[in-house]
Amino acid sequence: MNRRPSGAHRRARESRSQRRSAAGLIALVLGTAIVLSGPVGARAAMGVPVTYAGPTYDTTVKRPSENKPQSKLWYAAGAWWGLLVSQADDRVHIFELMPNHTWRDTGVQVDDRLNSTGDAHWDATESRLTVASRGDGSLLRVARFTLSPSRIWSKDSGFPVTVNTGGGSESAAIDRDSTGRFWVTYTRSSTVWVAASNDASGLTWSAGFKPNVPDVTIKSDDISSVISFRGRIGVMWSDQQSHAFRMALHVDGTPDSQWTVEDALAGTNLADDHINLKTVADDGQGRVYAAVKTSQDSAGPSAPLVGVLIRTPEPDGSGSWDFIVAGTVADDHTRPIIQIDKTNQELYFFATAPVSGGDIYYKKTSLANPSFGPGRGAKFLDATPVVNNVTGSKQPVTAETGMVVLAVAEGKKQYYHAEMELAGGTSPPPDDTAPPSTPTGLTATPSAGKVDLTWTASTDASGISGYVLRRDGVVLTTVSGTSYADLAVTAGQTYGYTVQARDNAGNYSGQSTTVNATVPTGEPPPAGGAVSFRDATEGANNAESTVTVARPASQEGDVLVATIDYRGQSAITAPTGWTLIRLDANGTAMRKATYWRLATSSEPASYAWTFGAKPAAVGSILAYAGVSGTAPVESSGGVVASSTSVSAPSVAASQGSVVIGLFGVARSAAISQPGGTTERTEIVSPSTTTYPMTGETADRTQATTGSTGTLVAQSSVSGPNIGHVVVLRGAS
After folding, report:
1. Residue 431: per-residue pLDDT
2. pLDDT of residue 16
3. Phi and psi torsions of 686, nearest 5°
4. Contact yes or no for 209/192 (Cβ under 8 A)
5. How far is the CA of 88 from the CAs of 73, 91, 109, 155, 317, in angstroms?
6. Do strands 483-486 and 474-479 pair parallel, antiparallel, or not at all (unpaired)?
């Protein structure tokens, strides 16, 4: 917040301590937004902005919507999304702006550092979000996430990656060139720096380097930003020492050492540390726009203080720059950003006024003949007492997306955002803010090794998209139907279940009444015959969206057990007919999912598991005869670790049951099975896989009723690992 003592001389340039304080986006309290300019759920008239008060954030978080070159918002899959810090951990998560104007935490963490600030780059063709995230005293990180067709975000395998920036930076921005390479820019040690990914994967990066142009030495609080346009990467920076804004240009595909430079604006006191870049990908003129601020605050009330620099390409590939004044010293704007309305071919300018903090004002002009009128403009985001640090999206907005900007009231530690419909599209229907009916009739039927859950479907005008099941207050799973079998239970334990509906508009019902179930502890029915191993198969991918495992030899009534080990933390979808036994995660390094299936007389030749990203994955399927077809899983458990020992916990097992150990390591390794077991499979990712996985399975017969004892496999390489144990019960 640009606060100053009463009566102090007002400067356009904030104090260094204010500029250097960085913050991540802050968690939003999930509740009904307070509408400052209209009733909840009201739709504003076309072209009229509406402000919504959002949740508060913790005192440890500082100015979460900073900083000026960065964009915290993007539009995807029919909704606005943002980088905000969850109150669950005070760290940046992905949030969704809901139809009722509140923000929903997806639970997907972007950066685990307190007060990191991120710049969001959305690629609609790949359904991927890439975030460059910085901290005051640590290296820059790049994280990437994929949005599935079912609107689930998952972190891509191998991310985040660290860029060697030499330390903390003043700011950071990211964009992608026409060859697919990512570029970041930042300022550090009074110098402009860039770094680039080595290829389109974004998994490996160059160290930071200076663009090969004259005079990249700047003041310690100057900033830089980056933009991709017309087969070029442009890096703009403020240079308060030389009183100029400059842009270095690099042609896509040429050596990283080849750059040219242009002066966008130069003259005494014409540069300050405020830059926000935008362009339109299919703009016939190939123009680039930059919201900037000067240091003219002592030059008189009519001197230009803020404006927009516009670059128009010349035939020889160079650019000519024009400066369009958006506000004078008397208007007292600060921290400007711009948004481009592609539908109506208009340029929107946003800024805080007054400089000490107030409201977010805006002006607009046509792209064909840009010229802003006099004065501060109109209020776009109107809040009490003051707001600052407005942020938007890199993408142009359209009549479909509407306009959304976000800011914070730092004094109150609270978010605010404003929404406005844009002309030119079909008028959308009124917002659906009505929640679906609460599910009723929840029943929980316990039996040996599982709890079967059923409930009555909810109703809603827009339709039901799914149900959220909670066990003892913690989310267990999300399903589309009205039944679920919870197999991750322990004999003798009592569990409390609730179910909640979500409609197609994103509204959630209340939770159902809690229903308790106690898993029986008695001995299972005596086995009618010995459980025997029949066959096993295995499969691996090379960082793809699926992993396929062939069907093992089996007969109708056999029980198949599958285990999938994969890098990262993306969502996993099993083939039809497979029931999840348990799913465990080892941080961001890997996940392990284990399933069972009752074989039929017409099994497919193979089974394919699908991921929300493209992780390296390995899988095994084991077939067993003589297993109970109604309650095959007697017990199960898992252990997460990082060492050469891969363990599965001790669980209960009856005499004659089969104890299966399933082990995964996020490395290319050799795994030795636990003592007293027979190895069934061992599978390693292909040698060309950048971030490989190894999986191993082994089993033995339980000699007496009791505990299995801990199963410990040994890996030749230390690394993140997960061990599962599954006990299969004999048929009665």
Report:
1. 63
2. 28
3. -55, 150
4. no
5. 21, 8, 11, 19, 50
6. unpaired
- The first and second tokens of residue 474, run together, are 């913690």
Q: How far, in Å, CA of 633 to CA of 454, rounded?
A: 20
Joined tokens for residue 611: 């991921």
- Which are the contacts of 42, defined by CB distance < 8 A and separation ≥ 6? 35, 50
CA–CA separation, 59 vs 400, rounded Å? Answer: 36
The alpha carbon of 637 is separated from its chain's Cα centroid by a whole number of angstroms, namely 29
Q: How far apart are CA 259 and CA 192, in angstroms?
A: 14
pLDDT of residue 425: 60
Give CA–CA dist 182/131, Å, rounded.
11
Q: What is the DSSP string of 166-193?
A: SS--S-EEEEE-TTS-EEEEEEETTEEE
Paired strand residues for 340: 347
Share of the chain above pLDDT 90, in %: 66
CA torsion, ordered 241, 242, 243, 246, to nearest 10 deg: -110
Nearest C-alpha neighbor of 607 from the set 548, 648, 564: 548
SS3 258: coil
Q: What is the DSSP annotation of 100-153?
A: TS-EEEEEEEEE-STT-EEEEEEETTTTEEEEEEEETTEEEEEEEEEE-TTS-E
CA angle 368, 369, 373 (to 5 degrees): 135
Q: Tell me, what amino acid is at 321?
A: W
Query: From start to end of 448-493, where are the E strands?
Result: 450-456, 464-471, 474-479, 483-486
All domains in the chain, ordered by first residue: 23-420 (2.120.10.10), 440-518 (2.60.40.10), 532-728 (no CATH)
Instruction: Tell me how many degrees the CA angle 377-382-386 measures, rounded to the nearest 5.
Output: 105
Looking at residue 40, its pLDDT comes to: 35
The H or E element containing residue 664 is strand 658-665
pLDDT for 506: 74
Please give the angle made by the CA atoms of 590, 594 and 600, to the nearest 5 degrees: 145
The CA-atom distances, in angstroms, between 394 and each of 135, 175, 366 are 21, 9, 19
Full strand arrangement of the beta sheet holding 464-471: 474-479, 464-471, 494-503, 515-518
Cβ contact 418:405 at 8 Å: yes
CB 373 within 8 A of CB 361: no
Alpha-carbon distances of 310 from 264, 313, 323, 357, 643, rounded to whole Å: 8, 10, 6, 27, 56
What is the number of other CB atoms lying within 10 angstroms of the CB of residue 480? 9
Whether the Cβ atoms of residue 244 and residue 263 lie closer than 8 Å to each other: yes
The number of beta carbons lying within 10 Å of the beta carbon of residue 418 is 27
Of the candidates 647, 658, 650, the one whose C-alpha atom is nearest the C-alpha of residue 701 is 658
pLDDT of residue 522: 52
- What count of other Cβ atoms lies within 10 Å of the Cβ of residue 474? 6
**Total count of residues recorded for the chain:** 732
Which helix (H) or strand (E) covers residue 712, if one does? strand 711-728
The parts of the chain modelled with pLDDT lower than 70 are: 1-45, 425-431, 522-529, 732
* Of 195, 112, 125, 186, nearest in space to 155 by CA: 112
Helices and strands counted in the chain (H then E):
1, 52
Q: What is the pLDDT of residue 27?
A: 31
Q: Is the bond leading into 354 cis (omega within 30 degrees of zero)?
A: yes
Distance in angstroms (rounded) separating the CA atoms of residues 136 and 157: 26
**What is the sign, positive or negative, of the torsion defined by CA atoms of 306, 310, 311, 314?**
negative
Given CA atoms 76, 81, 82, 85 in this order, what sign does their dihedral have?
negative
Nearest-CA neighbor of 72 among 395, 555, 333, 422? 395
The structure's pTM equals 0.60
pLDDT for 123:
95
Q: Are 87 and 24 in contact (CB under 8 A)?
A: no
